[in-house]
């Protein structure tokens, strides 16, 4: 039982959750669900906002410091009566009355999270502490978007949630990997110590429209390169694997986790696994058969394999991804072509 608890399973919190603020019971308070999305101007966050805004009972507040996100991703909601956008850095405390917090704020692309590693770890640790403090104060349920990176360079394949991982604590990726591991620890400590209602999603590689075109992640890189007629840069050895989830499937999984009864951690990802060479061949075949594929140097500590075991997501959330890579790539291509201003050749 002790081991189960330390894995985050079947954990019974020691305290009941804090009462929501008395303001909620005030006469003027509407029955709406008020939802905070940190990092809501980013790639996954903005798609999550689109989905949450479809429900007329939801009011959505986004906080973002625009490090990797942009107002443009939210332009359809700016000025909407159920939507608010706040420029704010989560490393600073925040006070807003909300019922749910989706805590996504953190750069996800290795290029960006390595750019200022001290800031990345502050965002993960102090940012998560601040959002947990807010959840405690207003009695909100909080969902953390953790990552498959908590498994590091995994020795168990596919990765199940009870695998503790193989992470280099002092490497160049550790500001992100270890930052998210501490964020998960904080979530469980607040849950056990203060009765906060928590949800943890371990997100595997996600792709789709609105990814930053030059953010260095592999799907966005290969697509932009194929469209621009530039060689696809496969980082050595090319046999390393990833599993790619389309963003609408991801958003569906996150909302089910938030609305369900399970704390997690739960893997949310698509188990379809590809080597980076296979991914390059697929993009070449689908987008630009004339493009070259070249090998380039890799970066340190690159995980050799990654594939989610999604048994828990299937059983506990009734969730599994619907969109295969070959169906998702054309949807992303349309968006990239529009933004790059490059039409299809035929
Ligand atoms: P993204 O970089 O597009 O979005 C992150 C957003 O957070 C951006 O809008 C950015 O400006 C904002 N942000 C960063 N630091 C902040 C701070 N200190 N204060 C306020 N806002 C801040 O990344 P994404 O792909 O949308 O990822 C969203 C979340 O999902 C992240 O927590 C990431 O770790 C997690 N995740 C993503 C993937 C993936 O494949 N996309 C995989 C695993 C985990
Ligand atoms: N990668 C690649 N070419 C690129 C960018 C990335 O071959 O232009 C590889 C990278 O070495 C890694 C994989 O693609 O093995 C996924 O990298 P990404 O940065 O997208 O995500 P993460 O490493 O965080 O899973």
Notes on the protein architecture:
The chain has about 350 residues and is of the alpha/beta class. It has a domain at about 1-205 and about 245-270: Rossmann fold. It has 10 helices and 13 strands. The chain has helices at about 1-5, 45-55, 110-115, 115-140, 175-195, 220-230, 245-260, 275-285, 310-315, 325-340; strands spanning about 35-40, 60-65, 85, 100-105, 140-145, 200-205, 205, 230-235, 240-245, 245, 265-270, 275, 295. The protein has a 7-stranded parallel sheet with strand order 3-2-1-4-5-6-11, sandwiched between helices. The chain has a two-stranded parallel ribbon with strand order 7-10. It has a two-stranded parallel sheet with strand order 8-13. β1, α2 and β2 (about 60-65) form a beta-alpha-beta unit. The radius of gyration is 20 Å and the shape is globular. The model is unreliable at about 1-10 (pLDDT under 50). Uridine-5'-diphosphate (UDP) binds next to α6 and β8.
Give the SSE layout:
Blueprint: H1 2-6, E1 33-38, H2 43-53, E2 58-64, E3 83-87, E4 100-103, H3 110-115, H4 117-138, E5 141-147, H5 174-194, E6 198-203, E7 206-207, H6 218-228, E8 232-235, E9 241-243, E10 245-246, H7 247-259, E11 266-268, E12 273-275, H8 276-287, E13 293-296, H9 311-317, H10 325-340
Parallel strand pairs: 1-2, 1-4, 2-3, 4-5, 5-6, 6-11, 7-10, 8-13
Antiparallel strand pairs: 9-12
Helix pairs in contact: 2-7, 4-5, 6-8, 6-10, 8-10
This protein binds nicotinamide-adenine-dinucleotide and uridine-5'-diphosphate (UDP).
